[in-house]
Fold these 2 entries.
Entry 1:
Amino acid sequence: MKEENVKETGLMIKDFNEMENVSSRSKTNVFTTITDNKTIFNLENTCDYKLNDCKGEVIRVKDVLIKVIETPMAEPEVNEETGEVIRDTEYKKVCILIDDEGKSYVTGSKMFTNQMIRYINMFGIQDIEEGLEIRIVERAVKNSANKALGFELVK
């Protein structure tokens, strides 16, 4: 498909490859045990539950989808003494769990997502594929009055 300018309407017709340049400055990496594209696509729009509403509940996790979204900061954090850039990218993380009944649970908690990433790095995905039983918990954040979502292993 070739770029053309349609004079009557002012439309610019472009190749679909140009759409990559139109998207935001953010870069999204997706890591998942889910193999069905339809399921992955539909999870972008709809999840059955928010993990924040499931504190204390036990979930038998069969699949996981983790999104890491990198966005360049408008104003990088700079060390005032040295002028060195400390941080120039913000990271958002989303974790979606699918249980053994096909129900989906979503959280934007970095602590929860980091904990799931650590678990997978330590033990692999085999436990998840077999059904990983976790209890959703809320934990105190170190040096803060805030609390964050996490999980405990049940079995």
Entry 2:
Amino acid sequence: MAIQEFLGERQVFTAAEFAQRFPRSQTDRNLLSRAVANGTVDKVRRGAYVSKTGRFAGAAADPFDVALAVTPDAVFCYTSALSLLGAAHNVTRQVQFYTAARIKAFAYDGVRYLPYRAQGTRLAPQGVLNATGRGYRVTNKEQTVIDCLANIAAAAGPDNLLHSLASLSRLDAALVAATAASAAHSVRARLGWALEAKQAQWRVADETLAALAGSLGAGPYYFWRATAPRDHYWAKRWRLYLPHPEQEMASWLVN
């Protein structure tokens, strides 16, 4: 049967892809509805499906493929970007992405899908390939660093973020500083501190650090918590309070 062949070939698919394969076929649409009803196909959301039959029986779908089936314009960000860039420290059961679609967060198969609006964000996405050759769009390294420093909670906290950044063997320090030009003072303070801690490995010019330091206001700024219990370890140059001793946090950035 043609529909069984299709479900054996495509683990994650959309209603549009199904309709393209079976145009003008009410019978096949009825069979798809029946497959959803009997559990051989999961309906993730309207228009997005996961096959659970044949070689896909009992096999978890790639969460990034699920996100793309729901929002084809997805640009993966935060911890998802770190993962696709090969820098994730901890495995998280969430997928984060920018999209122009107005959708709410949803869950499927134990994974939380978190859409973000890219308001004021210069995405400059890059393409990456997974082990099977599937391509995804992801915020580039510099934008990912700025995004994560701007929303450390979305980056799964300071520990995960700094250990993840330790895996980035290269970073265009001048570009990331330029990308941060329109960011909040607190983000530039966090960035300056991180670039200084990684100055040797990332080949950060003294001029880049001086420009960042000179762009700050009076402060103080906070790396993690500005409300009680507040960060209280002081990094003088960056007018920045840290949640842990500076030397300890700097050690998290060492690969």
